[in-house]
Amino acid sequence: MLKIRKMTRVTDEHVQLIRQIKIKKDYYAILGLEKGCSVEEIRKSYRKLSLKVHPDKNKAPGSEEAFKKVSKAFKCLSDDDSRRQYDQTGLAEDFEYNQQHNVRRRRRTGHNV
């Protein structure tokens, strides 16, 4: 059985999409969403965008970096706690730092353990 490999071409559209994602700093902007969007809208946008920028599908330079950025945006915005923290600070760096160092905020219960 002969396997035919699908040839993927790098188009201007692919290059432009990667460039736009790399420029954007705001997670909502990366996913093309507004701040008050639902989790379902976040998931839908992520699925659609991740297919477009996945390095196996998009051979444009920087597609791996763009895919990672889209994935980080989804990871942050799809989790209620991290989304709330991101909405308060607006800083992607805080979320990324916490993820890298596994920092978790402890809630104070009012009594000592």
Automatic annotation (TrEMBL):
Range of residues in the leader sequence: none
InterPro entries named in the record: DnaJ_domain, DnaJ_subfamily_B/C, J_dom_sf
PROSITE patterns, sorted: DNAJ_2
Pfam families the record matches: DnaJ
UniProt cross-references to SUPFAM superfamilies, sorted A to Z: Chaperone J-domain (SSF46565)
J domain boundaries: 26-90
Protein's name in the database: J domain-containing protein
